[in-house]
Design brief:
The complex is a heterodimer of chains A (about 300) and B (about 280).
Chain A: H1 15-30, H2 49-56, E1 57-58, H3 65-87, H4 89-110, H5 125-131, H6 140-158, H7 167-172, E2 181-182, E3 187-191, H8 195-214, E4 237-244, E5 247-252, H9 255-265, H10 270-275, H11 282-294, E6 298-299
Antiparallel strand pairs in A: 2-6, 3-4, 4-5
Chain B: E1 14-17, H1 23-29, E2 35-39, H2 40-43, H3 49-60, E3 63-66, H4 80-93, E4 98-101, E5 104-107, E6 110-116, H5 122-139, E7 143-146, E8 153-154, H6 161-172, E9 175-179, H7 180-190, H8 194-200, E10 206-212, E11 215-216, E12 221-222, H9 231-244, E13 248-252, H10 260-268, H11 270-280
Parallel strand pairs in B: 1-2, 1-13, 2-3, 3-4, 4-7, 7-9, 9-10, 10-13
Antiparallel strand pairs in B: 5-6, 11-12
The chains are: A mainly alpha (about 300), B alpha/beta (about 280).
Bound molecules: fe (ii) ion (FE2).
Chain lengths: ~300, ~280
């Protein structure tokens, strides 16, 4: 957003005036709330917020201009926090409520939504975790990997799927000329931690809790407290996050299999990709290809989009 | 106005919003429903489950698209990529008309994901109408704009909300999605008579109505869509139906969503008021 105006327009005669008013209001709503969920007491230029709000918002007999603006600001922050929480249960479990809340707020301050859909809200979270390591220290690397993994799930859920290359075309092209694209909804991850297992444990725990809270007895039986899922220990992990029959899956990959797929996805020919799989037995490689083709992972080469 | 040029001359009856908790019930039990309203943005995706599900629904049901992010009232130009996605969806659903809100929510390309109230001025009405025309010309589908519920008003406003709504739809030559719950909520928050609002809009432009539940707080009413419709809203709906004619009606229930049957039965209560309105205007 452009720099906020000092004053809202007194009259609204042009689209330019409308833009200034909207910039003023949006700036007010997007500023972080105080610890008790209030509007900040001063405007960007140091004037009292009560006064600034009164310049453009009408009060009524129950609420001041400040309070009316505050209602909208709370709705903004609560809505966006909810959306980030929904998309990042693993990161939330790892950081805990307080640190996750601080990370989400700092992220949205630097990268407010630039998309019409909340689906894209976390698209820059991995980058932001890298930019501000203090927010996740001492587990910044782990936090970044969980964020990458959770973004890959968004991509796997509704990312594009392209026409699957047929086996005949694949087998009739010589390997030194054959280039295969990987479906845009498939994300290959080389991780320092077994994030897939961690995220599954978190989801399982959260599902048990919500099951308990949805049973009719839950009015009398307490919902089990949120048990802490132990943080994963370092272990090199290769995984593809993808979908099959429109259901989300995580597929563990052998390191050599990962290298083949990664080489293909970055545009190498099949022969070059296979050379990357040094050490893997040809029969094993054939089995991998059979499985990947059955999953429909190969399409014509695509410039991989990052969303 | 049961069927008019603003709703593609469709006489659609009573529908409900298509919501995730009801998917499996709808697909397995195939209940009889006049039509479903979908949130366009949930299906403006590249692939995967949302589009598969939509196609399964489209095989059995009539669907109307309702958007939450077009922001006719934002000073920003319409976003081309957004419009192209929306047009692809329009082709897929063959929605006979499309609705979104008379509000703003983005500025300089930053999105609030909220439906923020407009300043009710002639300049804002001109800009908004111009955008509605551009968007309709691009999408090639009739558009109904919906009045939002609001919690704030601006000093710069030059007219009432219903005068502003009328000004915009006349300039844009588009339809109205009259949300009677939103009128009621705003009337309490701003202290006007909701019947003045209903009486003040151009009735022949109403192509659809929304009904919903709301929540009362000490100092304001919030448009929460998590309750059955409240009595005063039904009364206002009955009045609006007398004034505008029987319109395609949709119940919005978006939070604390009960079973499919409960939502559908709540929506069908509209029939009682429609019958009443028909008797009153032979
Ligand atoms: Fe509505």
């Amino acid at each position: 957003m452009k720099a906020p105006p000092r004053h809202a327009p007194k009259r609204l005669r042009t689209t330019g005036d409308l833009r200034v008013l909207q910039r003023m209001m949006a700036t007010a709503l997007l500023r972080p709330l105080t610890p008790d969920d209030g509007l900040q007491p001063t405007w960007v230029d140091g004037r009292p917020m009560e006064q600034v709000a009164s310049e453009f918002i009408k009060p009524n007999d129950r609420l001041s201009a400040f309070e009316r603006l505050q209602l909208y600001s709370r709705m903004y922050w609560f809505r966006l926090f909810d959306a980030i929480r929904d998309d990042c249960p693993g990161l939330l479990a790892m950081l805990g409520e307080d640190r996750f809340g601080r990370l989400a707020q700092a992220y949205l301050e630097r990268y407010p939504s630039r998309s019409f859909t909340l689906r894209d809200l976390c698209s820059r979270l991995v980058q932001f975790i890298g930019e501000e390591p203090s927010l996740t220290r001492p587990h910044t690397a782990l936090a970044a990997e969980i964020a990458r993994f959770e973004w890959a799930q968004t991509v796997a859920f509704d990312g594009e799927s392209r026409p699957v290359l047929d086996a005949a075309r694949i087998s009739s092209t010589p390997p030194d000329r054959l280039r295969l694209g990987l479906q845009p909804y498939v994300t290959l991850l080389a991780l320092a931690y077994p994030i897939d297992a961690y995220v599954i444990s978190v989801k399982r725990r959260d599902a048990l809790r919500s099951e308990a809270s949805n049973t009719p007895e839950s009015r009398t039986v307490a919902v089990p407290p949120r048990r802490r899922v132990p943080l994963p220990r370092r272990a090199r992990t290769f995984v593809a996050v993808h979908r099959h029959h429109n259901r989300l899956f995580y597929k563990r990959l052998d390191p050599a299999a990962y290298r083949i797929l990664e080489a293909l996805a970055s545009g190498e020919t099949l022969s070059t990709a296979l050379a990357a799989a040094r050490g893997a037995k040809p029969a094993q490689v054939r089995r991998w290809f059979k499985a990947w083709m059955a999953l429909g992972w190969f399409c014509a080469p695509v410039a991989r989009r990052r969303r | 106005m049961p069927a008019n040029r603003f709703n593609g001359h469709c006489d659609y009856g009573i529908g409900i919003g298509l919501r995730v908790p009801h998917y499996s019930h709808i697909l397995s039990k195939k209940p009889v429903v006049d039509w479903f309203e979908i949130i366009s943005e949930n299906f403006m995706v590249d692939g995967g489950r949302p589009l598969q599900l939509l196609d399964e629904i489209l095989e059995q049901y009539r669907v109307v698209q309702h958007g939450v992010s077009m922001y006719f009232g934002s000073a920003d130009k319409p976003d081309r990529a957004h419009l192209r996605r929306l047009k692809n969806l329009v082709k897929r659903t063959k929605t006979p008309w499309l609705s979104d809100h008379l509000c703003w929510g983005s500025v300089d390309g930053t999105y609030t994901h909220d439906l923020l109230p407009m300043p009710y001025t002639f300049a804002a009405a001109r800009r908004t109408a111009e955008k509605i025309r551009q968007i309709r010309d691009f999408l090639e589908v009739p558009i109904c704009v919906e009045n939002v519920s609001s919690y704030a008003e601006y000093h710069v406003s030059e007219m009432t909300e219903w005068e502003f709504l009328a000004e915009v739809v006349e300039l844009a030559d588009c339809g109205i999605l009259l949300d009677v719950n939103n009128i009621y909520v705003s009337s309490k928050n701003h202290g006007f008579n909701p019947y003045d609002y209903v009486n003040g809009v151009p009735h022949d432009r109403v192509g659809q109505m929304h009904i919903a539940g709301h929540t009362k707080f000490e100092k304001y009413i919030l448009d929460t869509h998590d309750h059955p419709v409240l009595d005063p809203v039904w009364k206002l709906y009955a009045h609006a139906t007398k004034r505008c004619g029987v319109s395609a009606t949709l119940l919005e229930w978006d939070d604390k969503i009960p079973s499919f049957d409960e939502v559908h039965n709540e929506a069908l209560k509209a029939n009682d008021f429609i019958d009443g309105a028909k008797k009153a205007t032979p």
